[in-house]
Amino acid sequence: MSQYDFGIVGLGVMGRNLLLNMADHGFAVAGLDLDAAKVTSLEKEAARDQQVMGTTSVAEFAGSLKHPRALMLLVPAGGPVDAAIASLLPYLENGDIIVDGGNTYFTDTDRRVTELAAKGIHFFGMGISGGEQGARFGPSMMPGGDRRAYERLRPVFEAVAAKVNGDACVAYMGSGSAGNYVKMVHNGIEYAIMQLIAETYDLLKRGLGLPDDRLQQTFEAWNETELNSFLIEITAKVLNEVDTETGQRLVNVISDWAKAKGTGKWTSQNAMDLQAPVPTIDAAVTMRDLSKLKTERTEAAKRLRWSPVVHESLLEDQFIAQVKNAYYVAMTTIYAQGMTQLRIASEAYQYGLQLDEIIRIWRGGCIIRAACLEDFRAAYQRDPALPNLLLDDEIGRRVVNMQQHLRTVVTEAVNRGIPVPAFMSALAYFDAYRSETLPTNLIQAQRDYFGAHQYERIDREGVFHTQWNG
Description:
Blueprint: E1 6-9, H1 13-24, E2 29-32, H2 36-45, E3 52-55, H3 58-63, E4 70-73, H4 79-88, E5 97-100, H5 106-117, E6 122-129, H6 131-137, E7 140-144, H7 147-160, E8 163-164, E9 167-168, H8 178-207, H9 212-222, H10 230-240, H11 263-274, H12 279-291, H13 294-303, H14 316-349, H15 355-362, H16 373-382, H17 393-416, H18 421-433, H19 440-451, E10 455-456, E11 463-464
Parallel strand pairs: 1-2, 1-4, 2-3, 4-5, 5-6
Antiparallel strand pairs: 6-7, 8-9, 10-11
Helix pairs in contact: 1-6, 8-11, 8-12, 8-14, 9-10, 11-12, 12-18, 14-17, 14-18, 15-16
């Protein structure tokens, strides 16, 4: 009997939590998983007065949903998504809606949109940010697909999304794969900010020599300032955790071999395709890759020994303040890079993205939520066609006023041999972006010399080639 408002395929932690979130808001929901234990777990967690049904039968699941059916896939990206769609298709009808809630590469979503449209099925790619807790109590959600079909989904999504001042942190992103693309760039920004925080931690611990208690207290205090964000908040909590086995701070016994699921890499790869410079995201991806070279790094630490020559010791409070401001400047350039990539992609792929709306739904529930997003949203409201956040008068003025601290911090890191590629790339991006003239004129001349690639001149129109060797 068709009585359930929404269905989810895949009852792992994310799927189960999101389904229970929907039930909390009064929706009748159905879950499908081939693992009977997960089905049982869902039904046990649901309250008695909630309409929650779990099953291992595709036919029962599809038959239980109201028409037009609305269901979400929360299964691993790639082949599992195609397999889930194939198992559902015999039971679906014209006008039904499938939402992919995983981190899927956007071109796969475009393919599925086209394939399923031919069968009369609407396909959505939707980014979900917030992790397990977000799914259970309010995530940020980024759906993209057919706008008219979105109306069937909107009441459910707006109810379960995180709320900021009463605003639901969900909005229609645009056509096709817009939702997956926005989430991909969101994750690229996340990679870069996490790398920036790690470098900040290293500067204060290894560079300044802060003890664990003072280090933790510094991040905790920063979270009460303009640096307030989810990632700064959890950093303070992580640094406070004690390992029950050794009695040390847990972070001190965790391996530095970082893992990744690929979304940061996708952001960098596609940015290069679009010629959208995102050097700090690139640096973050590179550092995760470099972290995996643990054996080589251990050997290099023995062979490539160097004792830094530092003439002055750092003044603790002064350097902490400088690092704080340097972090703010670098963080701003990270958002500037990511938002510029979204603007360029929106034009290239005809998504119709509204950058102020994207920032609005990132303010709550998601991993990169931060107090500064209110300022960034205001910038795009002042000028929806803003090419780069740094060109907003207020944001630009703030960055210029603090940029000397970024230079100081990078210099101190270099002098002490502490790797800070996120800080360095942020500074280089800022300096390159504000340079009216770059030395790429020499590169153009070199290309023409060895490959007759031609060049343009600054004093007249046209394209030119020089016989350099004759």
